[in-house]
Specification:
Length: 516
């Protein structure tokens, strides 16, 4: 109740009124201003306020206070494939799991989008290593909890959690602590996602470097600094060039060519990598059509991240439109799928690939033999060719175990009626061994390096590359995992890039090109 007293003609007037509804409304407005409307968790404003309170009121018994920043990896794919309503339900379930995982007195919050946070109040542990271990164990349990499947209207959705951890330190303000946790989370995503990272001071320098690289990459795409090279894919039986694999290169202002592994390693900018994927596909189709018009009709292989086929960066029908615009027959394009992991929505990917197969585009599965994801994809997806993981090819001559594993995988390909291609065939002994095992095609420095357009056309005019010959059974060097050196010289723009005694490093399943 709210009461007032007023004097009137020598007397008093008492007024009372019920303000319960107004107080309730004010409390509701205050709650709404400080809580997320979807999950009802504290929002960024309230979370920041509680971090400030924890830091300003920290006593000697509050040691170990930490902030966790959490990002749900793969959430965008859920939105794009099963809808935003399902995405909202996943966020609600994730918020519930987070709230149940933290202790009473700690704070779980949603900062916006698929980002959450937790404030873990110190437990009085004075030993720095002990408190770090305790918080990191808690963060890892939280990562596992948030990465469990979500059941939404009978559909199972999967995401992973990347978590950054930062500890309160003397003299550190709330803004700095939140920034440190954010940097650690960014590092967790850059290091492979689905992991926990503890903040370290050098992370700030890494972020600045990545931002600069992303900016340079953006400018390079805009200014036309990228070029496309092609590496022949040869039939191991006779050396005939049956396809060419498109590989993007960034030519710096100094004339140095950088491989994608080099310029994308520190630039985890999804928009830029998606733009580069589109550029590579469009340029590869355009150049393949130009070569076909001159009588050099050889299929082109374009490597695409599986996520690009299920998100909005490559809409349905865009491949068909591209082929029609340049007049390239669909059978002259092979899309090589890479980076398939358990979070990839296989139902949607299967639909997209089936439509492409129906159009006439051929599909290759990259990384065969590298993990469970490739096996699951092989069981579900329509593919024409299997590409052996480079890790198998690297040591197939030296390791008895790898030789047997690779032989078994190639038998699977043969039994399924699929062609096979070995990537990174860099020395003659690998080519000989793989051919003996039944591998149908190879790509690597044992045949040719990536070529510019002029040298590619010369190679296609010849129509074949030299194929090494030798004993069918390799002589194993004790089953070890050492690398054998050697190979044949390859040229790029007239420059010999490998000598006969050079050691050939791997680079993200792609033959590396040294600076020119």
């Amino acid at each position: 109740m709210e009461s007032t007293i007023n004097r009137h003609h020598g007397g008093l007037i008492f007024n009372s009124r019920d303000v319960t509804e107004r107080v309730r409304l004010q409390a509701q407005l205050q709650h709404n201003a400080e809580h997320d409307p979807l999950t009802d968790l504290p929002n960024r404003t309230l979370f920041t306020k509680r971090v400030q309170q924890a830091l300003s009121g920290r006593r000697s018994t509050d040691r170990g206070t930490a902030v966790l920043f959490i990002d749900l990896d793969g959430f965008k794919a859920v939105n794009d494939t099963i809808g935003h309503q399902a995405g909202d339900e996943l966020l609600v379930q994730a918020a519930r799991r987070l709230q149940e995982a933290v202790r009473h007195g700690d704070t779980a919050a949603r900062l916006g989008g698929d980002e959450f946070a937790a404030l873990i109040v110190g437990d009085g542990t004075r030993d720095r290593e002990a408190r770090e271990r305790h918080i990191l164990e808690l963060a890892d349990r939280l990562r596992v909890t948030l990465s469990q499947p979500y059941l939404i209207d009978g559909t199972e959705a999967r995401v992973a959690a990347s978590i950054g951890v930062a500890f309160a330190e003397p003299g550190l303000g709330a803004g700095e602590l939140l920034r440190n946790a954010d940097l650690a989370m960014y590092r967790a995503k850059a290091a492979g996602k689905g992991r926990v990272e503890l903040y370290k001071p050098q992370m700030q320098q890494d972020v600045v470097r990545r931002a600069e690289l992303a900016g340079r990459l953006r400018s390079a795409l805009h200014d036309g600094e990228f070029t496309l090279l092609h590496q022949p894919v040869v039939r191991l039986e006779d050396g005939r060039i049956t396809a060419v694999a498109a590989q993007a290169r960034w030519r710096s202002s100094q004339g140095v060519l950088f491989t994608p592994a080099e310029f994308l390693r520190g630039a985890e900018d999804g928009d830029r990598t998606a733009e580069l994927s589109r550029w590579t596909l469009e340029k590869a189709v355009e150049q393949a059509a130009e070569r076909a018009a001159t009588g050099l009709a050889v299929p082109v292989v374009v490597r695409l991240d599986a996520r690009r086929l299920v998100d909005r960066s490559l809409p349905p029908g865009s491949v068909e439109t591209l082929l029609t615009r340049h007049g390239l027959p669909p059978g002259a394009l092979m899309i090589e799928l890479s980076d398939i992991d358990p979070r990839t929505p296989l139902d949607e990917l299967e639909r997209r690939l089936t439509a492409l197969r129906r159009l006439g585009v051929r599909i290759a599965l990259d990384g065969f033999g590298s993990g469970h994801g490739a096996v699951s994809a092989l069981r579900r997806l329509p593919v024409d060719m299997l590409r052996l993981d480079r890790g198998l090819v690297d040591n197939v001559v030296e390791s008895t175990r790898l030789y047997k594993i690779t032989s078994g995988l190639l038998r699977i390909a043969t039994d399924l009626g699929l062609q096979s291609v070995a990537d990174g065939v860099d020395v003659p002994e690998q080519a000989v061994a793989l051919r003996a095992m039944g591998c149908t095609h190879g790509q690597g420095m044992a045949f040719s390096g990536p070529l510019d357009e002029y040298r590619l056309r010369r190679a296609l005019t010849r129509g074949h590359c030299p194929v090494p010959h030798g004993p069918a059974e390799p002589a194993f060097a004790g089953g070890g995992a050492g690398r054998r050196t050697g190979g044949v010289p390859a040229v790029l723009g007239g420059t010999t890039v490998l000598g006969t005694n050079a050691t050939i490093p791997g680079s993200h399943n792609e033959t590396r090109v040294p600076p020119t």
